[in-house]
Design goal:
Length: 166
């Protein structure tokens, strides 16, 4: 399945579901790509904005307004801290810090861009993702991985929040 098709399907799903006041499923999608020429891992996270605002409020005891005109710079800092704690990538046996780049809104989904630099060779890659799991036991984090045409997908849940991508 190519990337533009995945984005189109996800966008349609978001638009259809955004017509309801409350979404009844709890899914976030994380796309992880290794780009050998750039010696970099690129990460794109798609998270329902109401869920991430609720998670930040629960963790930091401060209401945030990500994705709205009320958003302040401190909200993005809390988001960066939250994701760096909840999304852990082990590269070649070592946990590597993610660099938060930016975010944008698409319908009611917050899209976050992150990267890990200086990865000359990727021998192994595992992921642990506990994002939003403190809010709902039904939370599912879908991890899609791609490197040189190779694709792999993991479904991470509260019972199984870790997986091996390579």
């Amino acid at each position: 399945m190519n990337k533009s098709f995945q984005i189109t399907v996800f966008t349609l799903l978001v638009v259809i579901l955004s017509s309801f006041a409350i979404h009844k499923f709890y899914v976030s999608i994380y796309q992880i790509n290794y780009v050998p020429k750039k010696q970099m891992i690129q990460i794109t996270a798609r998270i329902f904005v109401d869920d991430i605002n609720d998670a930040l409020e629960k963790k930091y005891h401060k209401k945030t307004f990500l994705g709205s005109e009320k958003e302040i710079p401190k909200d993005a800092i809390l988001l960066k801290n939250y994701l760096s704690e909840k999304l852990l990538l082990k590269v070649n046996g070592t946990v590597k810090p993610t660099i938060y780049l930016s975010e944008e809104m698409e319908a009611n989904v917050l899209i976050c861009y992150l990267k890990i630099q200086n990865i000359a060779k990727l021998s192994s890659l595992s992921v642990e993702n506990n994002a939003l799991m403190e809010l709902n036991n039904d939370q599912q984090n879908i991890i899609q991985y791609q490197e040189s045409g190779e694709k792999k997908t993991l479904l991470l849940t509260t019972d199984n929040s870790k997986g091996i991508l390579k």
